[in-house]
Amino acid sequence: WGTSCSVTAASLAPTPCLAHGAQPWAWLQFSQSGQPKDYALPNASWSQGMLNLYNEFVEKSKDGTWKRIPSYRLMLPLLTPEHPCPFTHPDLMKLEGEKMSKDTRLFLRSLDEEGLGFEYVMFLNPSEKRMVTVYQPGPYLEGHPGFAHGGSTAAIIDSTIGGCAIFVAGRVMTANLSIDFKNPIPLGSVVLVDGKVNRMEGRKVFLSCQVWSADGQTLHAEATALFIHKPVG
Ligand SMILES: CCCCC/C=C\C/C=C\C/C=C\C/C=C\CCCC(=O)SCCNC(=O)CCNC(=O)[C@H](O)C(C)(C)COP(=O)(O)OP(=O)(O)OC[C@H]1O[C@@H](n2cnc3c(N)ncnc32)[C@H](O)[C@@H]1OP(=O)(O)O
Question: Among 161, 110, 162, which Cα is nearest to 140's?
Answer without folding.
Answer: 110
